[in-house]
Amino acid sequence: MKYEIVSLNEKMVAGFSAKTNNTSPEMSAVIGGLWQKLYSKNGCLELTNRTNNKAVGIYTNYAGNHLDDYTVITACEVKNAENIPANMEIHKIPKGKYAKFIVRGNMITAVAEFWEKLWKMDLDRNFICDFEEYQNADPENAEIHIYIGLQEDKTTDET
């Protein structure tokens, strides 16, 4: 799969989170439920300080690798933590180096196929934060930018 290495600044998001893992029979229901919450009448439409119209799916707080527990978050990027509805949480996507992939197609199947391929890749992942940024809301012809957190280059500061 083709990707480019990008450096991102920290982003603040507001949304909903839950713990799951890829071996749980409940994983799809957990993640699907978070997306339903985000798009409900008490979800992202309530955010008055959104920076754009994109939805974000975040995977963070990994216990180890992709088979262990992690936190999944469905959210929208916000300018600041002001006026966030009480039912939503604030999270941050950390500044850092990411592998950026562009996926096009059905929102569910294209993303699932991407993750299956990614788990077989030999990327120097940091397992801190990965996220999907949905560029449009077309379920059949979606464009999704997927960012996979990478280890930062280790440099020594010799004085």
Walk me through what this model shows.
The protein has 159 residues and is of the alpha+beta class. Helix content is 15%, strand content 43%. The chain contains two helices and eight strands, in the order ββαββββαββ. The chain has helices at 27-38, 107-118; strands spanning 4-8, 11-20, 50-60, 70-78, 89-93, 96-105, 125-134, 142-150. The protein has an eight-stranded antiparallel β-sheet. Strand 7 (125-134) and strand 8 (142-150) form a beta hairpin. The chain is globular and about 40 Å long. The model has no long low-confidence stretch (mean pLDDT 92).
Topology:
Layout: E1 4-8, E2 11-20, H1 27-38, E3 50-60, E4 70-78, E5 89-93, E6 96-105, H2 107-118, E7 125-134, E8 142-150
Antiparallel strand pairs: 1-6, 2-4, 2-5, 3-4, 3-7, 6-8, 7-8
Concise structural overview:
The chain has 159 residues and is of the alpha+beta class. 15% of the residues lie in helices and 43% in strands.
